[in-house]
Amino acid sequence: MKIEILYFDGCPTYLEAEQTVREVVAEQGTEAGVALVAVNTDEEAERLRFPGSPTIRVDGRDLFPVPDRDVWALGCRTYATPGNLATMSGPHGGTEAGGKTLVAEPPPVAASGPADRSR
Q1: 2-100 has which fold?
Q2: Helix, strand or coil for residue 45?
Q3: pLDDT of residue 104
């Protein structure tokens, strides 16, 4: 299994996402490589179809798929949770959704998109 964490330099939560992913992989006893993939230009974001930072992909598949869009650009990513939107540090912290597993079907709804990084 290949796990990629796509992020932009300056993202406040990608290292937390990496730590969470590594913990889940260890808990599951899964053999998986975890790679950080820097996405630092809008051109890279477009080429990689980057919905925001951090994005976690397992074998090329986003754990929290988003609808196709006309523009892919740098920005923070939010995730739909039962009560609101959250970053990786919010409830369910990304990889914990769906029973804290990286191989189960992804949750049915995800919200994402470039956000103002100046906040």
Answers
A1: Glutaredoxin (3.40.30)
A2: helix
A3: 35
Q: Which residues pair with 57 in a beta bridge?
A: 4, 62
Based on its alpha-carbon atoms, the radius of gyration of the chain, rounded to whole angstroms, reads: 13
Mean pLDDT by runs of 10 across the 119 residues of the chain is 95 92 92 95 95 95 90 86 53 40 41 45
Q: List, in sequence order, every residue forming a beta bridge with 38; answer none if it has no partner.
A: 7
Give residue limits of the domains in the chain: 2-100
Contact in structure between 6 and 53 (CB atoms under 8 Å): yes
Amino acid occupying residue 68 = D
SS3 letters for 64-102?
CCCCCCCCCCCCECCEECCCCEECCCCCCCCCCHHHHCC
Q: d(Cα 101, Cα 116) in Å, to the nearest integer?
A: 30
58/3 Cα distance (integer angstroms): 5
